[in-house]
Amino acid sequence: xxxxxxxxxxxxxxxxxxxxxxxxxxxxxxxxxxxxxxxxxxxxxxxxxxxxxxxxxxxxxxxxxxxxxxxxxxxxxxxxxxxxxxxxxxxxxxxxxxxxxxxx
Length: 104
What we know:
The protein is mostly helical and 104 residues long. Helices cover 75% and strands 0% of the residues. The chain has a domain of 59 residues. The mean pLDDT is 88.
């Protein structure tokens, strides 16, 4: 019985630090590999950069379209833009225009 009581006495002093070490290992693992970990942060940053690139392209396209639309505004109507849009919409061409038919 002396051996069993000795093991129990020493186990009381070892259980706390072992549980503490296990808790630290558990949290350290999830800091690196969890849902909100460093790897997930890295992936999220890559997705944010890709979205910023798409947003920049979309903003540029929007500005170009806004510039073209502003040329058709009644207060600042550009005759060349009006002529271009009218010919496209009505499918007209001037006598000196070269028309190249394409298959749709």
